[in-house]
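Researcher: Structure for this, please.
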Amino acid sequence: MRNKWSARRRAESGGERERNWAPSLSSISVAVLGLLLSACAVGPRYQAPELPEAASSVGYTPEPLPQQTASAAATDGVAQRFALGQDIPEQWWTLYGSDALNQLIKQALSSSPNLAAAQAALRQAQEVYTGTSASLLTPNVNAQLGAGRERIAAVSSSVPGGFTTGLYNAQVNVAYSVDVFGGNYSAVEAQQASVDFQRYQLEATYLALSSNVVTAAISEASLREQIKALGEVLDAQLKQQAVIEQQFAVGAVGLSPVIAQRSAVAATQAQIPPLEKSLDVVRHQLSVLVGRLPGEQGMPRFELGSLHLPQELPVSVPSELVRQRPDIRASEAQLHQAAALANVATANLYPQFNLTASLGSEALKSSQLFSSGWGFWSLIGGVTQPIFDGGALKAKQRAAQAALDVAAARYRSTLLQAFQNVADSLRALQADANTLQAQALAEQLAKESLDLTATQYDLGAVSYLALLDSQRTYLQAHIALVNARAARFADTAALFQAMGGGWWNRSADLPQVSLNNPKRER
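Model: Predicted structure, token format:
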């Protein structure tokens, strides 16, 4: 705290300072503006990486994509057409034609804790960006008001017995770091890239959530169909067993066919519990995906017969995939952030310019605080230049450049993985159609063979081993047919996910997920 003597000295020269006050503030503004206009970044400005040339000139797979897949004479055996260049709808899961599935995904998007966490992470990044830009790109202005009483000893004041005085102070302080070499701007740019990363992470979470719900629903439908198929086979085996048991009772057959049939029935029965276990696991997974506890009631049932296989498959051109995949966009945001941080590390090698200013009034009495003659101001400019730090700043710059190289390599890896996902899905859909076509024929022939063998066995024309072999063949063909049907549904969902899921066509922002979180103590 300044004492009364400094206050008096200011009072004596106050008139001169008051006269120079306005011109001095103008000079400050001109100086700050000049420094701002002279600011320049020392590193290269970020530019989005270009798409590999091959991605624009070739397709996703070495062989040209056919116009459509094969068809099969079976349920869900329709041909699927590849619509190259057609855009993906926002709610692509509605193409499965299931109201229960649509409602379940709607519930998941409003209750999923994973989506809530991604939304909160985005809000956090946005607030950090706001704080960073405010602190680095704008002056720091604060006001100060003080009042105090002080007893001055006689030895210090030369006044017998000493005296007591008051001192009142009011001032505004301004501090600004002049971004001559662009370090502050690059730091804000890095934080903006972090916001972009969290935004695309949110889209990736949205895509993964909707895709996982669809996939889990298809898995449930497939498992139910497999259990149903095993039940049908088991019923046929039990009927056959009853016939053999009756034949054994009257002495028409020996014990060996009876034991063999009982063994076949037991083997079929043994296959059902693992499938029921998997069905329960999938049901639990679906409950958690939509934000429910596994024990809660009200979850819909899914069967293959309630799902419609999409016949029109939109396939984006390769040059558009980069802008549609949220994981690629997120990886690019990390690359942008690394480039900006590399510029920050480079700018730290150069001088740092700081500008501070104060404007205020100081008086011995509160009534004089804002009177003429008691005002003061100051303007201080400073430059800090690192001279010797043991190579720390240079090492940090090299580390930032290495981090940029890491981000560039990861971006390239993400890009390649995305194109592989699409290529795998396209080939899988073609293979699924061919598999269903072949498996439908195999199941039909196996059923005809089983019916014929069963008739021949009843007539005594073939041995029981031939019947048992026909039963086993039909069982395998029937289960394989169910799996082939389910694979077409699942790989269709995988293609929509690999293409990015259509989030860019969303007409409105995602609703904020509201969870019943416990209140935080204050």
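Researcher: Any notable elements?
Model: The beta strands are 81-84, 140-152, 163-178, 312-315, 352-363, 375-384. The chain has a mean pLDDT of 84.
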